[in-house]
Amino acid sequence: MLRKCVNHPDNFCYVRGDLTFKDQRRSLNPLFKKCYELYFGCKVGDQDKNWTPHICCLTCVKRLTDWAKGSRHNQRGSHLKLL
Description:
- This protein is an alpha+beta fold.
- The protein is built from two helices and two strands, in the order βαβα.
- The chain has helices spanning 30-40, 58-68; strands spanning 25-27, 55-57.
- A two-stranded antiparallel sheet has the order 1-2.
- Helix 1 (30-40) packs across helix 2.
- The N and C termini lie far apart (28 Å).
């Protein structure tokens, strides 16, 4: 039996899995992918699959890039958490 999700995966943030509204969605660009790898210690994966999110929320993009730039407000683990 073929199962189909009710919601499209790109309605959810890749990092936190939260519902993300259209105006808050950002693509997973190369800078984001590099910051993600440095922060979490693993690469963004499964982007060739249709069941995985291909977007991230604006908050996670901002916090990850701020962390990579050395912002004191975004210490490792203080704001971003895996599910």
